[in-house]
Amino acid sequence: MEIYLVRHTETVCEKGICYGQSDVNIATPFDEIFDRIISELPSEAVIFSSPLKRCVILAKHIQENIKTISYQEDERLKEMNFGDWELKSWNEIPQEELNPWMEDFVNIKVSNGESFVELHERVGNFLSDKISKINQPIVIVAHAGIIRSILCHQSLLPLKEAFNNKVDFGEVIKIDF
Questions:
Q1: Which end of the chain is more exposed for a tag (fewer CB within 10 A), N or C?
Q2: Are strands 138-142 and 44-49 parallel, antiparallel or unpaired?
Q3: Of 3, 45, 7, 1, which Cα lies nearest the Cα of 168?
Q4: pLDDT tens-digit profile of 15-42?
Q5: Is 14 exposed, middle or buried (0-12, 13-18, 19+ CB in 10 A)?
Q6: C-alpha of 154 from chain center
Q7: Which pLDDT tens digit goes with each residue over 84-125?
Q8: Strand 88-89 relative to strand 17-18: parallel, antiparallel, unpaired?
Q9: 3-state secondary structure (DSSP) of residue 72
Q10: This prediction's pTM
Q11: Which residues contact 108 (CB under 8 A, 6 or more apart)?
Q12: Which residues, other chains included, contact 1 with Cβ-Cβ below 8 Å and sequence gap of 6+?
């Protein structure tokens, strides 16, 4: 089955801000980038999107420009919950909190947030609940963390190596699942 993983485009956040599940907007203009993304997608697909506006804006644009079999937003496609770190500069997160997480982001839970293992489990639940029942091409509009997790599920890559999967803003990654 063909799955097209689409990362949202750049946000309005300054570089170096941890915005995880914060509902930030995308930077404008984005029309040319959206047109390029559309050109890389199938002409007909089932679309799933994170409910965060930086994904929904793009997903709705895709929905308007390809034949959409169905469209659904799913909470399990939200980016990692960075809890107390949300909307903070990475530089202002206390080192005694940041360093253990940087050494083991897979298992260490962010204060009032989640670990990458928890994110990976919810992505796994989404995949087994939704993807296994579909025979048409699928477009998933989501975040870098979600896409890395899906790629780990698909390739059996250990989670500690998830960041080996580079995922740029506005990138489309086609996989067979």
A1: N
A2: parallel
A3: 7
A4: 999 999 999 999 999 999 999 999 999 9
A5: exposed
A6: 15
A7: 999 999 999 999 999 999 999 999 999 999 999 999 999 999
A8: antiparallel
A9: strand
A10: 0.96
A11: 100, 101, 115
A12: 131, 134, 135, 137, 138, 176, 177
